[in-house]
Batch of 3 targets.
Target 1
Amino acid sequence: MSASTDEQREFTDTGALRLALRAEHAAVYGYAFIGAHCADARRDRAYAHFDAHRAQRDALRSLLVEHGAEPDAAEPSYGLPGSTDDADLDAFARDMEERTAQGYLELAAASDPVLRDLAARSLQAATVRGLQWGGTLTPFPGYRADRSPDADTADTADTADTEE
């Protein structure tokens, strides 16, 4: 259930973990796609980022179980870029890292200091990965005034090919 733009949803550590997990599910899916359509060093980078996101996804799943919550399963599919040229794949990777950073930014407000530490380290890692795909450093990585943290992680309106 998603809050409307006029409503505030109640913040919980578990809810923030779920948000970060959804972003990680989408990133694992997206990097598998990118890796399959890149060559050489770009492919190596995509698969290294795939492995990093897979490890994060698994850690978040474990943390949710420790908090007594059932981890959400991945969606059957997520939005993908409309083409596989290098520029579109780079933009897609940057957007995934921004969405991942956004999920961890919310987790930084957790009451549990272990979760706050995880959020800070993960936000930093997502920011560095985004820079490796040609992103720019912003004053507040992960903060996007134009997109709610509840935004569907599958929504890649800037790069997705939504019509077949």
Target 2
Amino acid sequence: MANYKFPKDFLWGGATAANQLEGAYLEGGKGMNLADVMPGGKVRLDVIGKPGFDFKIDHEKYVYPNHEGIDFYHRYKEDIALFAEMGFKTYRMSIAWSRIFPKGTESEPNEEGLAFYDRVFDELKKYNIEPVVTISHYETPLHLITEYGGWRNRELIGFFERYATTLFERYQNKVKYWLTFNEINGATHIPLLGLGFSPETEETKLQDSFQGLHHQFVASALAVKAAHKIIPESQIGCMLVYAPTYSTDCDPQNVMHSLQEQRIFNNYCGDVQVRGAYPAFSDRYFKENNISLDIKEGDLDVIKEGTVDFISLSYYMSRTEKKDKTPEEIGQGNLIGGVKNPFLKASDWGWEIDPTGLRIALNQLYDRYQKPLFVVENGLGAYDKIEDDGSIIDEYRIDYLRSHIDAMGEAIADGVELMGYTPWGCIDLVSASTGEMSKRYGFIYVDKQDDGSGTLERKKKKSFFWYQNVITTNGEEL
């Protein structure tokens, strides 16, 4: 018997992002956004992460799976019915900024885009599924990237505030839980996804990234203040990609190095958004890396006034650090760096699997902030095989999720206040990192392949019925 119980109002559900499943990229008055020009396949990060990416579509060289996604735009009723059949209490989703403001700069929103999300929220309400809405999830309007230089440009603060305020006013009776920026702290690793620019050089990457983050901190705080004013009962959180950082051994030099990496990657953004001020350790880091922030009068007051109500996080892997590491020691597949951990197995894509790391992460965050936590992404990207009888026996996914849910239960027993759990890609969708459909996360299989072929038929995997029972028993039967 487990020595924990999940709270009776625990929010079980699943998570997706608009750009990875909606499709209909030119329908309903939607403007182009970053995901629309990102090619599919393992070349994706190589192409978009380098200076000189021209943000143009080249059908002769690449495929663009995000254009169709899994056609949620037209099939949302079918998909939400499947979520309801699993017993979802909540559904974490994002709104595509360029559906609401096609260029990002308009003074008036696009009514067709607003009406689409009205229909989605109404469908969720029909099944008593509570939406958790990410305002910006790698969906920066392309116009703000090509004409304004992304979040390096302070003008995006005002554009974002108008967008967020529009959402709060429109959906104030339909959405209670909001998140501002998806995986905000990941921006220093891949600035294009979160900040909407490719650094010109490695020398300018840190300066531009931390300046862009400052603009997002101000924008996030303004959104928090607006949400509290327009929807007094709302709860609005930050969203971190969290990876507890281990030292490769007990050499104090490696321990110190891992602490420094932990602080900058895991703590920096959280400290600003939760505590409302820049952490003391950032001063030395900025000096040693020649980072000088342009902070305008009033910015720090806004950040202090606009702290979040809860902390949401994605957790996929831990990170193991060593002060002086060779290229051969770096863990393959770990987008956030680090060396291989000899005690951990890895997924088909090289992501190390560490359920205990989730318990550590939740304890670290709760110890630091004493704010409610919400695991809004966690899952296993894997190749799925359809058996001769049409079934999909994804025991590997069940094993992964079981161990991580157990780790959450242990964290609750440790005293952590945990609001809910929404595994990533509850229905198969386009991978953000590689643009592949074959990297599947879902409880629901979608017949679409990497080359774009497929019927888009939905099919329940074994994990669908397993997770259904987990929700029914409130985590007592894993």
Target 3
Amino acid sequence: MYLTIKETAEYLSVPEAAVKSLIQQKKIRALFDGEQYLIYKEQFATHLKQVEKYKELVDEYLSEPIPESIDVKDED
């Protein structure tokens, strides 16, 4: 399935200008049909999976309780 720049920006939750910039930098593959750029949606599948996995790892880390401190003595 192919998306326009506007649809891609909504799908990725980024501004349209960012999508255009990434196309110009060749970080997003796109086809130009004479009128507009068309972007293949599946090229983002791996990226989105990695983002979800990273979010899970961060949530797991943040939910881990803080260990009690080892016998810390005040030397005053």
